[in-house]
Write a structure and sequence with these properties.
4-stranded antiparallel sheet; globular; 246 residues; binds adenosine-5'-triphosphate; binds magnesium ion
Amino acid sequence: MTALEIKDLHASVDGKMILKGVNLTIRKGEIHALMGPNGSGKSTLSNVLLGHPRYKVESGEITFNGKNLLELKPYERAQVGLFLAFQYPMEIQGVSFAHFLFSAYRKFQSAPITPTDFKKMLEEKLAVLDLDKSFVDRYLNVGFSGGEKKRAEVLQMMMFKPQIAILDETDSGLDIDSLKAVATAIKSMHNKDFGALVVTHYQRILNYLQPDYVHVMVDGKIVISGGKELASELEQKGYNWLQQEA
Ligand SMILES: Nc1ncnc2c1ncn2[C@@H]1O[C@H](COP(=O)(O)OP(=O)(O)OP(=O)(O)O)[C@@H](O)[C@H]1O
Ligand SMILES: [Mg+2]
């Protein structure tokens, strides 16, 4: 079943057109990788999907389970089952990570949960991510190392169980063990009810994830799509040969 469908999307930031006709369909059960040179528009696409106010959709459509996503506010997008992990996560002072997770969980999940069951679930996920229990007693992202911030994003994804997750460079800056832990976590969610768009510059995470599709964005458009062998080809050839396609 189609979950996220993007059709001929054009979007601008501060009057500058960045996305110039993006077409992409992500069904539940599929893992897609999005690659492409710096500045090609990958994070812009993530921000548009989130509903960031600075990013203006000029034309095209985005539907989520057949409904117009663009009419929904950012928190409503999360409520219907879209999750976004940022390239640069924000620090939130004064709120413990555990408290943040619990209140967000109760807001977004319809099924009620007791604090004890919640704690048990949280501890299971922390173990998969190789994080200490005390990690969630800290303020969200405050003083977290780069790699800890990325794992904190993945922890949120695991707790909220979205239908579709957009992970923008969640693998950047991770050491080898953290990368494995994050890939294992994403894989542990991979089933027929979960799909993901993994934005990455590196083949390494894709070796673990074995994506169903690899797309390359150049100058605001997806210029080529293929299977995971496309990622190896890019590793060899770089992106220059694709610039003329844009
Ligand atoms: N808020 C903004 N103000 C001005 N320009 C912006 C803004 N956001 C994005 N851009 C521009 O849009 C283009 C695309 O940026 P984007 O962050 O989407 O690229 P990217 O593909 O994610 O790159 P990277 O691989 O480096 O993360 C860039 O030229 C960038 O400078
Ligand atoms: Mg980016």
